[in-house]
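Reply to dn_fold:

You asked what the input looked like. This is it:
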Amino acid sequence: MENPHSKISPTAKIAAYWKSLSDIPFSKEIAVALQAEQTAEQSLGNNIAAMTTFSPLILEARYKAIDAAIMKSGAQHIIELACGLSPRGLQLAAAGIEYIGTDLPEILAESQPVINSIGWRQGLPMQRIHFHAANVLDKAQLENAAGHFQGKTFDICNEGLLMYLNTSEKKIMAENIRALLKTSGGCWITTDIMFSDIRKQLFAALTGSRKELYTSVLGNISEQVGRNITANDFADEAAAMSFYEAAGFNIEKIPFYDSSYPLSTLYLVPDEVQEWALGILTEANTWILQPMEQV
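and this is what came back:
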């Protein structure tokens, strides 16, 4: 890869801070332990207040959309790719589901002890939570992680990763995941598939200072991680469909937000644009990808 994924680590703390403003279980404990708010303040500076208007809502919806798809699939074993500071392992373990979180070793070195500590303090069944160092572009590392389930069916999920991968990297990741799922019989759940035409619509809907802020923050994130994240979007939904079908997946799409779960951070969004924000979340989709029998 042209840039190490470890550069993405600070953005994971920003996401953890925004999630901590929601009712997502264990998100507050993780954010406090890793001083996520301080990292967000340092990274976003004067933009933090304005960004905290919409970002917590988007992050909360994204997280809960993954949860809804996992419940729909009925999976009892989950691998989360690039898990970062996700509280999902704690939440799933509490629900009786076995979880493997994978990420780069330098990220796990910081997050794993914190998550384990919270789990033990909360009296959770920590034998259901496991961590494995793995890069999504390294098939052998992913196979090693999946080997922990010893042939049991599992699903794979990820959120907040694909925006950092270029087309060739997305292809490698898809090939690696398909190979794992062909064996396990599970599916791949993601909310990460973004289209440049949707981003342009969002940009067009913004005015004045919000548009300037959006442009500035995206530029800062791209500079920080060494990757142009907007350049990694698919052109449109049809292009994304074609890409993942060519990669050997059948595709099911379910609404990103369908009112089946509460959005506890909606109050942060100004009343006059709440309907607009909910419309964006309702029109987006969670993608559930199942390997085709033949490719």
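The chain has a mean pLDDT of 87.
Hope that clears it up.
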